[in-house]
Design brief:
Rossmann fold, alpha/beta, 46% helix
Length: 413
C-alpha cells in the first residue's frame, strides 16, 4: 500500500506523544513493506519566520491556500492509495482535506485529542473538565481565552473549528479515535457515527521488561497542571508524612511546571527530578518501576505511558476517568484513583507498593493485555483495516458519481 502521512510536528523542546505515535506508525508501515511518504511542517520553524510572517500566522490557521496547492500537486504526482492526516495546527490547516479532494485521494485522520469539538482540544478549563463548546459554537472558548489563557490566541482555533466543521466531517472517510471514551464524546457532539472507529495507539516492544519488584515509582511525561503533577506532589507529601513507601518517586519530563517540580524535589531523598529522558532512558526507567503513575486531571483521549508500562510488565496507578478507565483494569493491571483527589492517589500508591506478590501479578496481567491489544502486530492490522475501509468508501462514492453522471442526474451547480 502507498500511504502519505500528513503531520504538523509539535515543538521539539517539549515531549510530544503525537510526534512519537506518528513516527512509530510510519516505521511500522515501512517495516511491513508498505511505501510511506511524509508531508509535514514543523512548529520549530516558526521561530525563524520574519516578524510579518509571524504576524500573518493566525490568518493561516483556519485555511492555508499555499499548503492546499502544494499538497494537491504532490498527490497528483505520487498518487498514493490513502492520505493519513494527524495534526494540522498551526502551519498546515484543514486545507489539506481540500487538497485530498482536489486529487481524488481518500483521507483518514487520527484524532489525538478533542480539537474537533473544543478549540484547545483539552475539554478542560480552570483546572476542571469542561464541555461547554461541545456540540455548539465555540464562543465560550473565546470568552474564557481557553488557548494559552488568551482570547486573541483562541480566536483562530475557534474560527477554524467553526468554518471547517463540515469539511472535516465530509472530507474524511475514516476517523481513528484513540479510545472508546473519546469516541463517545465525539458522537455526542454530533460527529458522523459511521465514520468514527476506535484504533488504540500501539507501542513497540520495549526490549526490556521488569525482572524484579522495581526500584522506584515513576512519573513520566509533560510537567503540566493538566497532567496532574501538582496533584502528585500533594499526594506524595501525604505519603512522606506517613513514613513513605520504601522506594523513591522519580519524575522525568519537562514543561511549564519544571522549576516548581525541581524546587520541590531539591534536597529530598525520597524524590528525584530526572529532567528529560531520551527514549532508551525512558524504557529503562519504566522497566525498573514498582508502578508508573498517571494522575491526569484532564480527560485523556488515550494514555501512551500507561501502555508503555504494560509493555514492560509494570502496573499503573491512573486517574479513574477518560481513556484510563478502558486501559487500566482496576485491581488487575493497576489501580484507578478518584480524579483530582490527592488522598485517593496516595492510598493507591501505598497499596500498589505494599504487596510485592500482588504487584507482580498485576504486572504480568498488564503484559498480557499489551500483547493482546496494543502490540505492533495488532496496531498494524487495525491501521490497514482503516485504510481499506477508507479506500472502499471513496471507491463506492466514485462509482455512485459515475452512475449519476451516466444517467444525467448529477448536480450541475
Amino acid at each position: 500500500m502507498h500511504v502519505l502521512v500528513v503531520h504538523n510536528r509539535y515543538a521539539s523542546a517539549q515531549p510530544s506523544g503525537e510526534n512519537k505515535v506518528v513516527d512509530q506508525e510510519v516505521a511500522l508501515l515501512r517495516e511491513a513493506g508498505h511505501r510511506v511518504g511524509v508531508f509535514e511542517r514543523r512548529s520549530d520553524d516558526i521561530a525563524g519566520r520574519s516578524l510579518a510572517g509571524k504576524a500573518a500566522l493566525p490568518l493561516l490557521v483556519p485555511w492555508n491556500p499555499a499548503v492546499r496547492a502544494e499538497l494537491a500537486a504532490r498527490l497528483r504526482t505520487e498518487r498514493p492509495d490513502v492520505v493519513h492526516v494527524h495534526n494540522v495546527f498551526p502551519l498546515l490547516s484543514p486545507a489539506v482535506l481540500a487538497a485530498c479532494a482536489d486529487a481524488g485521494v481518500p483521507a483518514v485522520a487520527t484524532l489525538h485529542n478533542y480539537t474537533q469539538v473544543c478549540p484547545p482540544g483539552t475539554l478542560r478549563r480552570d483546572g476542571r473538565p469542561c464541555t461547554e463548546c461541545v456540540g455548539t459554537a465555540p464562543l465560550p472558548a473565546v470568552r474564557h481565552g481557553c488557548y494559552r489563557n488568551s482570547r486573541l490566541a483562541t480566536v483562530p482555533l475557534a474560527v477554524s473549528m467553526s468554518v471547517n466543521r463540515r469539511r472535516w466531517w465530509t472530507g474524511v472517510e475514516r476517523f481513528f479515535c484513540i479510545s472508546a471514551a473519546q469516541r463517545d464524546v465525539l458522537v455526542r457532539a454530533g460527529m458522523p457515527t459511521g465514520r468514527l472507529g476506535v484504533k488504540h495507539n500501539f507501542v513497540p516492544e520495549p526490549g526490556v521488561v521488569r525482572a524484579g519488584p522495581g526500584e522506584h515509582l515513576l512519573y513520566l511525561g509533560r510537567l503540566a497542571e493538566a497532567k496532574g503533577v501538582r496533584l502528585l506532589m500533594a499526594a506524595w507529601d501525604e505519603i512522606a508524612a506517613g513514613g513513605g513507601v520504601g522506594v523513591p518517586l522519580v519524575i522525568a519530563g519537562t514543561g511549564p511546571l519544571e522549576r516548581e517540580v525541581a524546587a520541590w524535589a531539591a534536597g529530598r531523598d525520597d524524590v528525584r527530578y530526572a529532567g528529560l529522558y531520551d527514549p532508551a532512558e525512558c524504557r529503562q526507567a519504566v522497566a525498573r518501576s514498582v508502578a508508573v503513575v498517571a494522575p491526569s486531571t484532564w480527560l485523556e483521549a488515550f494514555g501512551l505511558v500507561v501502555v508503555e508500562a504494560m509493555a514492560a510488565g509494570v502496573p499503573t496507578v491512573a486517574a479513574g476517568h477518560g481513556a484510563f478507565v478502558e486501559l487500566v483494569e482496576d485491581g488487575v493491571t493497576g489501580l484507578l484513583h478518584r480524579p483530582g483527589e490527592p488522598g485517593s492517589l496516595a492510598s493507591c500508591v501505598r497499596r500498589i507498593a505494599a504487596d510485592p506478590d500482588r504487584n507482580r501479578d498485576m504486572g504480568q496481567a498488564a503484559r498480557r493485555r499489551y500483547e493482546r491489544d496494543f502490540s505492533p502486530a495488532v496496531g498494524l492490522e487495525r491501521l490497514l483495516e482503516g485504510y481499506r475501509t477508507a479506500i472502499a468508501g471513496r471507491s463506492a462514492l466514485a462509482r455512485g458519481g459515475d452512475l449519476r453522471a451516466s444517467r444525467g442526474d448529477g448536480d450541475s451547480r
